Amino acid sequence: MKRFLIFLTLYLFSFSLFALPSRKELKELKILPRSEVFFTQTENCYELQILGIEPAKVQLDLPDLPLGTKFISSKKEEFINENGERGTQISLWFTFSESGSTHIPPLMTKINGRSYFFEFEQTYVYENPALISPVAEVIFQNPSKLENDKKSGQKILKAQTGQKISFTVMIKYAIQVLDFKCPTPKDSIFTESNRTEFAKGAQKISQFTTESKKLADFEWQILSEGTFSLPEITIGAISYNGVKKQIFLPKNIVISVSKSQNSVTHEEKNNEIFASAFTKPEEESVKAKDSLPARQEYQKIAEKSKRGLFDRLLARKFAIFAGGRVFSVPEEKTKGQNFTGGQKVRLTEQAGAWSFIECQEFSGWTKNDNIFEIK
């Protein structure tokens, strides 16, 4: 009799520990991902918790898995939740060969001899951080103006000479930026603003994220016609696997620049002045022979034409850079960058006390005092 009472007490005690759930409660259960992010080529875990059921009374029957999804292992164990309730926790590990949303068929589970189907919650699988490199992105202020060229696969932004093109440079899949170089494109006015702390290398990402990080804002005015690639901005960054990578802006975006109706080049102005000296009516030319003011005016026209010719010849000249600050525009108030001297540079443009120079390492405007022309 005493043994029967002991057995009855233990049975009732075990029953109280595992309060059986209702069929409705079981049908509402889902198999959930253990972590917020899944990756390719690594083990990812799903979990199912069933309250009131001990592990010995649970049997699993795995479904046929889709291509690219591989079952690794499973585990059943008893667990206790925050309220002290006991149950069974089922852990299932899978690997995925490709990125994208998961599509695993329901898991058939027998509980106390009755079959139930539990659905896997859909989640997204990202490329393994150890296998991906940082990516640079460009966000234009007016992205709707980008046109897709189906033949070339390029994205084309149309603009006019002198028009301001505003864009932001972003980076993705990088834990830290080591360097961020932004040379001035040729025949352009190019300014940078709002460089972030992350772009300066002052911040470091500790956990994986799919969000892009802002580096800086830019404003670009192209002064000549043609088709242009994005500026040759280079980013030195560390990927999630700890390797330093050199990142460039996307190559599939180009700027198609046409001549602005309101713009007149310096050369065109000189040509107009020079041509006007020979297109005046014949009688006016005869009257001007003995006119001293007219002769002085012709002299000014000749000097202006000579200066225009000099500017064109200057584009083919070279100089030695003595060192100093180089600017994106010919203004000392703007932010410049110091460079050491000794380089041979090409002179492509001149504006008063300024010259536009370019070499393999840099390009931009500098004071004429910083260069020695090679004659």
From TrEMBL:
The identity of this protein, by name, is: Uncharacterized protein
Q: What is the lineage of its organism?
A: Bacteria, Pseudomonadati, Spirochaetota, Spirochaetia, Spirochaetales
> What species is given as this protein's source?
Treponema ruminis
